[in-house]
Design goal:
- The protein has 322 residues and is α/β, with parallel strands linked by helices.
- It has a single domain, classed as Alpha/Beta hydrolase fold, catalytic domain (Rossmann fold).
- Helix content is 36%, strand content 18%.
- The protein is built from twelve helices and eight strands.
- Strand 5 (151-161), helix 7 (163-177) and strand 6 (185-189) form a beta-alpha-beta unit.
- Helix 5 (130-144) packs across helix 7.
- The longest helix has 19 residues, at 299-317.
- The chain is globular.
Amino acid sequence: MTAGLPALDTELRKLLADMPAMSQLSPELLAQIRPFSSAPVEPLLEGRAIDRREVTITSVDGEQIPLSVFSPAGVDRSAQAPCIYWMHGGGMVMGDRFSQIDIPLEWLSRFGAVVVSVDYRLAPEFAGTTLVDDCYQGLLWVAEHADDLGIDPARIVVAGASAGGGLTAGVALKARDRGGPRLHSQVLIGPMLDHRNNTTSSRQYSGDPYVWTRNMNEFGWRAVLDGLPSDEVPSYVSPSLADDLSRLPTTYIDTGSAEVFRDEISDYATRIWAAGGQAELHVWAGGFHGFDALFPQAQISAAARRTRTEWLARVLLLNSDA
């Protein structure tokens, strides 16, 4: 093991050893791995009492953006269920609305929540604010169709993993600044928050194959920013740039001690507290980036998922005004 790095969780280290090692991304490699960056959703739905509906919405530039809506089968739409609005991971350059969808589907089963997942467009084909704009348009659609979806507009939770966690943070900032929709809470799972890539943890995980490295992160951010000068990067795209983190919905945010985003995530939670907001931060000892999505069977992954769900139960079911 490289000196000076937090040790990986023992079980995760064994599981990671069986994965193909990759520490760099290129346009050619991206084209090869994109088809494998998401799995079909049908096996996850098999045998479960879940209704699925596909819709499209219009983006700010007139393009059609797919949304998938998952609801408990046979639910009374007047019951006003909570809603999980999901943004997938993939470094902003891969994945689709079914990536990591097993995470919010757990909350559908536990809370009777309606899950809406957005298929935002990807970099480098689309750059700048396009990705976060697509996600925000999807959120507007959810709020506008609350009655039709059978959801409680006061219990809309925005959530996402990795790149989707960063987009979730950007959407929450945008909703605050634009006066809505009102968000109940946000769940940021290993979020990609800062394009500057200059933290200690970013430098620690620069080239060694730890699922997502500094080098890979630089590729993702270059694809999104497309040569935009650093002083012109919008905070909705790189949320760590936001000067003001006040008036955000109550926040759950987690990371691993052995991952590239560890320090920007910890800093984001600290700044929410400094602004008078509420955030619950978990740093899982020995966790690498995306550990609980890649290896949900590991003990540390089960603990991370359980803790996240227990937090949601606390704020969503017991304190609907959180």
